[in-house]
Design a protein that fits this description.
This protein is an alpha/beta fold. It has a domain of 122 residues: Trna Endonuclease, Chain: A, domain 1. Helices cover 51% and strands 26% of the residues. The protein has three helices and six strands, in the order αβββαβαββ. The chain has a six-stranded mixed beta sheet, with helices on both faces. β5 and β6 form a beta hairpin. The longest helix has 74 residues. It is rod-shaped and about 110 Å long. It starts with 7 loop residues before the first helix and ends in an 11-residue tail after the last strand. The relative contact order is 0.10.
Length: 196
């Protein structure tokens, strides 16, 4: 078996080829690095845009909640009087704080012995129901002037999925929603609200 030794020219050609491939590989690495930097920058821009959109949606949700609150406030007297709850006063955006603990109720509908804490949402979810139940559970503790009141709760929303409405009603809350051009309490007439 005979083997031929590479010549000087063969070695130089091979070194030149390796050098060219190395330069091409280096160029490809630089191009890949540039593309990765572009992708990272685009990703940062996308993240910023998502945050802006999320913030805008949150503000819109708050505005829709405010819209519901503004619609429920004047209707609250009629709605609760239809259920035998006389209404003397309706307070909006009630904030209570005591001993480092606080809460906010969108609407507080009161007479001399009864109060209904109303939470207003654009799209009612089970978590909203649970949060309102927690709010109602601590209202009397944070505002002792309501200690002897019969405290009840209600939820009002533009969008109320049936399962969420059933859950809220099962928890003893009034559910207020749109019916045509008017707001109505969706609980049947036999409904007995929970009392805190």
């Amino acid at each position: 078996m005979s083997t031929t030794q590479p010549t000087y020219d063969d070695i130089m050609r091979l070194l030149q080829e390796v050098s060219l491939r190395s330069l091409e590989t280096d160029r490809q690495f630089k191009e890949t690095d540039r593309q990765l930097k572009e992708i990272v920058e685009q990703s940062k821009q996308t993240d910023r845009k998502i945050k802006e959109v999320t913030k805008s949606i949150g503000k819109l949700g708050n505005r829709l909640g405010d819209f519901i609150e503004d619609a429920v406030r004047p209707a609250a007297v009629r709605l609760f009087q239809e259920r035998g709850i006389v209404v003397h006063e309706v307070y909006q955006n009630v904030t209570m704080e005591r001993d480092g603990e606080g809460l906010e109720i969108d609407l507080l509908v009161v007479n001399d012995i009864e109060a209904v804490g109303v939470e207003c949402k654009s799209n009612l979810k089970v978590d909203d129901v649970n949060e309102h139940l927690e709010r109602l559970a601590k209202l009397k503790r944070l505002s002792p002037k309501y200690r002897d009141f019969k405290l009840m709760g209600a939820l009002a929303a533009m969008v109320i999925p049936d399962n969420v409405a059933r859950y809220a009603i099962a928890k003893g809350l009034f559910v207020i929603g749109q019916s045509g051009e008017h707001l109505e309490i969706r609980n049947d007439q036999a409904f007995e609200p929970a009392v805190w």
